[in-house]
Design a protein that fits this description.
With about 90 residues, this protein is of the alpha+beta class. It has one domain: first zn-finger domain of poly(adp-ribose) polymerase-1. It is built from two helices and six strands. The strands form two sheets. Strands 1, 2, 5 and 6 form a four-stranded antiparallel β-sheet that branches. Strands 3-4 form a two-stranded antiparallel ribbon. β5 and β6 form a beta hairpin. The radius of gyration is 16 Å and the shape is elongated.
């Protein structure tokens, strides 16, 4: 089976996603880059912050370690998001 990639698309997030480059949260309502295709016989979907996608393509070498990229300024980790949600839900219970 041959490997192939669909062209990258830009979409507005309707839910939280994880950026494949930095593993930080792609927030709801934010624009992000989405890439799909088949690699070694397995279908995949990767999502990236626009800033991460631009950084990956800046030097023309798309090799990277998933989660090893620097997150964009102001991006939150999933742990930070979880804490914020817990604080909101505790405030609603009071």
């Amino acid at each position: 089976m041959s490997d192939f990639f669909h062209p990258m698309t830009q979409q507005r997030s309707r839910k939280f996603h994880q950026c494949e480059c930095c593993y930080y949260v792609i927030e709801r309502g934010c624009m992000y880059c989405k890439q799909t295709g088949v690699w070694e016989g397995n279908y995949f979907t990767n999502r990236y912050h626009q800033e991460c996608w631009d950084a990956l393509n800046a030097d023309g070498n798309f090799e990277f370690t998933p989660g090893g990229g620097d997150p964009p300024e102001g991006a939150r980790s999933f742990a930070e998001l979880r804490t914020a949600i817990e604080q909101i839900s505790q405030g609603a219970e009071s």
